[in-house]
């Protein structure tokens, strides 16, 4: 499959500067192919920016970065029309959102008004400036981060915006061997400087189209819906997942099947991806909204659903 080969090429390139993050990369790459966005909840210094830069370089795309702060304005993200006294006309000065991969660093430090300026762009792939709607480059991926430790001076991300993120995840701690390899890799040089493109944005768009044709058996569709219904009926949750979340789980399962070298989805895809896709879309009855707690609830619900057994390729 074209998508599998593309995934392996980009993964091999990413491994040159990102060590021990294969699973993280597979989830982010699946989000790209499913047309979604990623929210990373992790501490500073875990390689989020480096990973985003490496992916952008590998696909020969552009990358933008926004450091979210309380005084950040929507125009700082989208851009603004600037008046030129030289020719007495307004000229559009595009913001950093006009890129292929946008790293929104510490998104929860900006006000809700500024956070909401991303909504249209994330959902519609467009940006409206002074009533003029402009298309964003393709592919377009937002990798947003939030620091789980420092909550002073932060604004919780509204549920409407959380639902726009296809996946929420954390970059787990590395093992000792991987961390030693990082020290060896960065001891004398920065490998990022040697990263060269291994594909083009056009290749990514072709892979996105291929993912749309990945076969989903009716039993898999029923399995996803059963999970959704179980979240709505669970006494552990105040709010279950919406039909949009079910669609998101199906689409990212298609992408994950494609990078795994299959042209059909299996139940293991759904079970593996469920906490990453659904965990941030629920509200627990206990009131504890940590990522660990929400993912644990989703895993418990998924374990209680009967796994269908069929020939998934037919």
Could you characterize the architecture of this molecule?
- The chain has about 325 residues and is of the alpha/beta class.
- The chain folds into 2 domains: about 1-70 and about 100-125 and about 135-185, P-loop containing nucleotide triphosphate hydrolases (Rossmann fold); about 215-305, Helicase, Ruva Protein, domain 3.
- Helix content is about 45%, strand content about 15%.
- The chain has helices spanning about 1-15, 20-35, 50-60, 75-80, 110-115, 120-125, 160, 175-185, 200-210, 220-235, 245-260, 265-280, 290-305; strands spanning about 40, 65, 80-85, 90-95, 100-105, 125-130, 130-135, 140-145, 165-170, 235-240, 285.
- The strands form 4 sheets. The chain has a 5-stranded parallel sheet. The protein has a two-stranded antiparallel sheet with strand order 3-4. It has a two-stranded antiparallel sheet with strand order 6-7.
- It starts with a helix and ends in an 11-residue tail after the last helix.
Question: Would you kindly provide a brief summary of this structure?
Answer:
By secondary structure, this protein is α/β, with parallel strands linked by helices.
